[in-house]
Amino acid sequence: MLPRLKRFADILVGERDAGASLLGRALQAMLAEQYRYQRGTALDVWAFGEVYRHWLHELRSAADPVAQAKIDETRFGALFHAEQDGYVDAPVIAFLRHLPAQQRLTLLLVYGEGFDHRDAGRVLDVSADTIAARLIRISATLADRLSDRPPAQAAAIVEPLYPEGLGGSP
Amino acid sequence: MTELSDELLVAYVDGQLARKQTRAVEKVLDQDDVLAARVDALKHAHARLEAAFEAILAGEEVDVSAASAPVEEGLVVPWRVVKIALAGLGIAAALALAVVGYGWPLKLPNMLQTAPQAASMSGGWQAETARAQALLSRQSLEVGLESQANYDLVAFQLEHILGTNLKFPNLEAQGFRFVRAQVLRYGDQPLIQILYLGAKGAPLALYAKKGEGSDTLTPGRYGAINTVAWAEDGVSYLLAGEVEDTLLMRIATRIKLEPAPPLRTAPKPYTPVNSALDESR
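Output (structure tokens, whole complex):
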């Protein structure tokens, strides 16, 4: 289970060293608070949830949570082990890198771990419906990108408040 | 072309539909090339995601072998054995194996590095107060001798003792009813304790004492007790209870967003004259 937990932590923080560091702290917390484990809960669901909660707890305490959540392109790319011929799926990696952490984890739990929506929801502390909604949105977007289909029209058109060249003055 | 939403198609690809719905979708796909192509695109996207996640796992397992093999002379624990142990043993043994016996995570760089921005509440009045909170049980409030039905009077007394405006929140919307408030002592300073009970479980407490501090909501935990601390308007607050941390943070946010009340005046004692004056207003 450790490599799976490590992958979860890596995807969460977006790099290997920080993932290892997070997992270490989370494992220590789990050992210290193992009484929180409820008999009957799947061990992996519980452990993934604990790592996620630990990250969330640290993020809330961070002085600049937005900066904490930013991930480096090179380090994120290094998470993916190249095949023997050196192939890595660059478009999928770039797509994953631009997703918020919760959405990356949703994909990992459902398509990487094979969890059903309810268990994935338990890990991320959201409902199964939220998981389903995230998957629809992300899957449709990824399918569009990979098949070069034009993205669906946005429900609202966002325009800059001031056209370029006006120097921001009203 | 038949109109089938991406919602339905993703649910179909993920195997989330009932058998009857699956058959209906398959029937449509047999006759509609555009939809069939869309389903293929979704399946292709999922397959590439699965492959990408597999590629990470492959890297992790390479790391595990590299990190464990040379170090554990005379105590080589094959990965398969660890997996069996994790599946077969209890949570304590499994995690102990993970951290101590197998040794892998602690050997990776930065594994034991502490979080630089993590909330640190190792000392101070918050820590002592949270420890004291652990001694309170549901029964200690249920058999309370005091009657504190007059909410305004209690609020006035507390503010009078504290000497400043105090938030005295009503948490009924969050499922916690006010039960009792009292004044404790922390050193020479009064420490206000406002106690609430939910539908079940141990009490929730809001502590307040005069003092400055960060106005950021800072979570903490002491054993089973979760806490959120912050300061505002010269009062330092601590919300504590055996409540899930996300719920506790929501309650603390609600209290913090509540505007500070004006300094209360003493409620008038009941007399026939006061009563008549109130009625005539």
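Residues 33-68 of chain B form the longest helix (36 residues).
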